[in-house]
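JOB MANIFEST
job_type = single_chain_structure
chain_count = 1
residues = 165
[input]
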Amino acid sequence: MRVAHRRSSRAPAERLWEAAREVRLSDTRVLGRLIRWRIPGLAADLTFDEMFRAPPFLVLAEEPGRALVSGLVGRIWTLRHDYPELRDPEEFRDWSSPGTARVVFANWIEERDEGDAELRTETRVEAIGAQGRIGVAAVRPLVSTFGALVGNEGLEAAVRRADGR
């Protein structure tokens, strides 16, 4: 499963990236609540940047000021907090526990010729084993229904902040 979103800003890339790093879960109303429901214990005032850098997430790659790639593993379709904590990117790459999924969250900036920038995000989910495929299939309708919130609430909040709106 792959979901991608993008939003353009009049702001330069550096300002857009900083604005994106400052967006809090509480700035995104429905999306923030949905994330906090799926990952209990997250504070409403937590920034997305902080969230993607702390368990159950793991930073897989980073280009400071331009890109952040994080991942998590587990049974993402259950109501339990079933996300094993990983030690390093290699453990994420090698993850192969049947009945689970591996999820990558990539967020990055692309500069455009006009001097402005575009904020992009892409999420990829890889099911592992037959039970993993069944579990991922179960959340596909939820992702389809709520996936637009990433663009409509998350990215828009960053663009509004960067553009001074």
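[summary]
Residues 2-163 form a domain with the Alpha-D-Glucose-1,6-Bisphosphate; Chain A, domain 4 fold (CATH 3.30.530).
The chain has one domain: 2-163.
exit_status = 0
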